[in-house]
């Protein structure tokens, strides 16, 4: 009897200790604790297979930013920098053409530690976004950008390779969990080698060609980019994704971004194609057509004239006009 | 014609063709066929047949059985040795003996010698990839499909009729005649131009990117894929319930495919995709995939939005993956047909998926083709050059455009 009582006490004590430990870890390092509910592979590793998506504004700008009226803006009637109106290329989209605000995904002070020269390039990049952003040309998005573009992506976790499929330009990355030679050339998508640290998949990514950006705000890197990504399950349906970014040619020190990736729970979720090469031919080669579709090309500059009707009036507007 | 505009345009064409040459030099050295008999087909840790790895066809087998091997399913060893020898002779032929006069349209615009279009792979055992119908040939086209094919051929010929290709009665003009520039030069093609002769292929015009083939637009990858001239390396990764394949194909025109293993119905029929909509399930050790919902913009041997594939992927042993596909489209062929391709396992360590799909990122060929053509038009307008309608930028010679394959350089496997 007494033995059973002591045994029960021990069980309760152990259970309490485990709960406390889990709660403590969760409270101190959110997203870092391996959730007991995580999906597991047959060999006990977290199973990241499924369709996932980042639900944030990092694809617009990794850093904290307020909402603005359009991706491309111009000064309004007042001469203040903080009063901007949409510029011609997106004017006709109205409120659907705006850029949502965000608290940002850069850890620590939220700053990206550019060297002074690189900071100047970043500023120029954002001022010439339409001309410079490789995303607009439908180029391979690179890592980490592909991970938080506004499209779902699929992880297929095999036995010695993990394949990630991205609809944007139908591309992919392979994370090698086994020994493999490096790529014979530099790459857009990087060369990814993974290993397990407990319940965290740690991926070392190198071999970049330096032609990618991080976001639509002009944040960029060179071919010396080195990433360490960490994928840790939070629950069955959420992954804590964190990247340490190192590039001595562009940044003065390593820095970090982090965000959750969410599972797409629709029972019929599947990736559909987004074969954007076809979508951007006009953007890339419209000036070289025999019969131009955009009426005003001046050399290689597309001059966009916006034709926009005043929206059909609501009742008040009609009444006012009478 | 201004030298600069010809130069620009030729650079565009050459960029496309040179890529083929480089790739063929890299094609794998086949191993002796009767090498080590491999172990049994493995299973994944979760008990499904394991198809994972990087694969390619180590041997060259023509899609259709050449007429002179009618009723013969397999080559003898002697025939294979002879065919290899003939193909080696084509490859080794001195370029200056077969190449057209340097710097001319004939030289660069689709008139390369056949060596470029012969792979370095040894001939395989089968006389055709097609195993059904038993004659190893694509079934006859339906009258409807024949009409589509004739329509595009007439359009191609109209655009060639004022060029030297027709004047000199080159194979590219077969079925056409020489004459003044056709008023059809301003027409839209009878249907969306895809890839290869059946798909509309090359037309002799470059008004905009859509006039060029899907290959030149870096969108040449199609299903089903048998490797073709440039070869391919499908990389398969599996998880329970999903099979994913990265097709390293078409010189950097690769793409990622995800096959859900599900009984869920296909996408709504108005949702159309370049590579259709795949639904897979296991039948014993075979992955069976049903593919529908193709877009009318794609083309496989003349079949478009009505293409229906039933693929069967079976790992025969540790080193061999059999890919069999039944191809059906009642609006294109008089009966379904089946292709069987044996894929050989490549080293996991060698990183054989050697190129990411970056054709589009480097597609300066398209810029050069369009810019060169515009320059020719300006030169003509200023009285400094010939009528662009009399110049040829595609389908000018014969071999490259798939119009004809004859003569002393002809590939014994495809002529």
Could you describe the 3D structure shown?
The complex is a heterodimer of chains A (322) and B (415). With 322 residues, chain A is α+β, with helices and mostly antiparallel strands. Chain A folds into three domains: 30 residues; 193 residues, Beta Barrel (Lipocalin), CATH 2.40.128.20; 41 residues, no CATH class. Chain A is built from seven helices and 13 strands. A nine-stranded mixed beta barrel of chain A has the order 1-4-5-6-7-8-9-10-11. A two-stranded antiparallel sheet of chain A has the order 2-3. In chain A, strand 10 and strand 11 form a beta hairpin. Chain A starts with a helix and ends with a helix. Chain B is α+β, with helices and mostly antiparallel strands. Helix content of chain B is 21%, strand content 18%. In chain B, strand 10 and strand 11 form a beta hairpin. The longest helix of chain B has 23 residues. Chain B is globular, with a radius of gyration of 22 Å. The N terminus of chain B is likely disordered. The chains are: A alpha+beta (322), B alpha+beta (415). At the A-B interface, strand 4, strand 5, strand 6 and helix 6 of A face strand 5, strand 6, strand 7 and helix 7 of B.
């Amino acid at each position: 009897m007494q033995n059973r009582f002591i045994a029960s006490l021990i069980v309760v004590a152990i259970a309490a200790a485990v709960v406390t430990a889990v709660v403590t870890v969760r409270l101190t390092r959110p997203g870092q604790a391996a959730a007991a509910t995580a999906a597991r592979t047959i060999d006990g590793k977290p199973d990241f297979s499924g369709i996932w998506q980042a639900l944030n504004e990092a694809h617009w700008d990794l850093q904290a930013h307020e909402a603005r009226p359009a991706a491309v803006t111009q000064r309004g009637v007042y001469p203040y920098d903080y009063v901007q109106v949409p510029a011609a290329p997106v004017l006709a989209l109205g409120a659907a053409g705006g850029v949502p605000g965000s608290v940002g995904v850069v850890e620590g002070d939220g700053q990206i530690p550019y060297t002074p020269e690189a900071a100047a390039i970043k500023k120029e990049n954002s001022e010439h976004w339409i001309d410079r952003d490789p995303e607009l040309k439908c180029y391979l998005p690179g890592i980490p950008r592909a991970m938080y573009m506004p499209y779902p992506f699929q992880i297929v976790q095999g036995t010695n390779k993990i394949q990630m499929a991205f609809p944007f330009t139908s591309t992919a990355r392979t994370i090698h969990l086994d020994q493999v030679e490096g790529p014979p050339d530099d790459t857009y998508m990087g060369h990814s080698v993974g290993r397990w640290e407990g319940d965290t998949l740690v991926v070392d990514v190198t071999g970049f060609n330096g032609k990618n950006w991080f976001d639509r705000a002009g944040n960029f890197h060179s071919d010396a980019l080195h990433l360490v990504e960490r994928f840790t399950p939070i629950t069955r349906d959420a992954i804590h994704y964190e990247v340490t970014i190192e590039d001595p040619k562009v940044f003065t020190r390593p820095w970090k971004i982090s965000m959750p990736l969410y599972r797409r729970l629709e029972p019929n979720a599947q990736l559909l194609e987004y074969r954007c090469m076809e979508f951007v031919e006009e953007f890339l080669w419209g000036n070289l057509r025999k019969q131009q579709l955009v009426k005003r090309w001046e050399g290689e500059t597309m001059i966009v004239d916006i034709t926009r009707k005043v929206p059909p009036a609501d009742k008040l507007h009609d009444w006012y006009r009478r | 014609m201004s030298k600069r505009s010809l130069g620009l345009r030729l650079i565009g064409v050459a960029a496309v063709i040179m890529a083929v040459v480089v790739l063929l030099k890299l094609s794998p050295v086949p191993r002796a066929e009767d090498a080590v008999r491999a172990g049994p087909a493995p299973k994944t840790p979760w008990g499904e047949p394991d198809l994972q790895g990087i694969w390619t066809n180590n041997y060259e087998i023509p899609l259709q059985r050449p007429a002179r091997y009618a009723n013969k399913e397999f080559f003898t060893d002697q025939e294979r040795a002879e065919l290899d020898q003939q193909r080696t002779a084509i490859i080794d032929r001195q370029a200056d003996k077969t190449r057209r006069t340097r710097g001319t349209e004939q030289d660069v615009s689709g008139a390369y010698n056949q060596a470029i279009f012969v792979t370095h792979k040894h001939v395989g055992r089968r006389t055709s990839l097609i195993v059904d119908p038993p004659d190893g040939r694509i079934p006859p086209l339906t009258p409807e499909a024949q009409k589509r094919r004739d329509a595009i051929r007439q359009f191609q010929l109209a655009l060639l009729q004022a060029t030297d290709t027709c004047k000199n009665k080159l194979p590219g003009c077969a079925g056409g005649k020489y004459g003044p520039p056709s008023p059809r030069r301003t027409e839209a093609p009878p249907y969306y131009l895809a890839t290869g002769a059946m798909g509309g292929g090359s037309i002799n015009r470059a008004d905009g990117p859509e006039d060029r083939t899907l290959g030149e637009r870096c969108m040449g990858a199609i299903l089903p894929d048998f490797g073709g001239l440039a070869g391919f390396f499908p990389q398969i990764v599996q998880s329970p319930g999903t099979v994913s394949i990265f097709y390293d194909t078409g010189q950097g025109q690769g793409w990622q495919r995800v096959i859900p293993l599900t009984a869920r119905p296909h996408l709504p029929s108005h949702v159309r995709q370049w590579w259709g909509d795949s639904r897979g399930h296991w039948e014993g050790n075979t992955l069976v995939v049903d593919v529908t919902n193709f877009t009318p913009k794609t083309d496989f041997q003349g079949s478009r939005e009505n293409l229906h594939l039933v693929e069967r992927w079976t790992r025969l042993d540790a080193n061999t993956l059999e890919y069999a596909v039944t191809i059906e489209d009642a609006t294109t062929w008089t009966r379904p047909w089946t292709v069987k391709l044996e894929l050989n396992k490549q080293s996991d360590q060698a990183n054989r998926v050697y190129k990411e799909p970056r054709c589009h990122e480097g597609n300066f060929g398209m810029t050069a083709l369009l810019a060169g053509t515009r320059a020719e038009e300006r030169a003509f307008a200023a009285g400094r050059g010939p009528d662009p309608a009399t110049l040829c930028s595609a389908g000018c010679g014969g071999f490259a455009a798939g119009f004809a394959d004859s003569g002393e350089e002809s590939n014994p496997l495809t002529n």
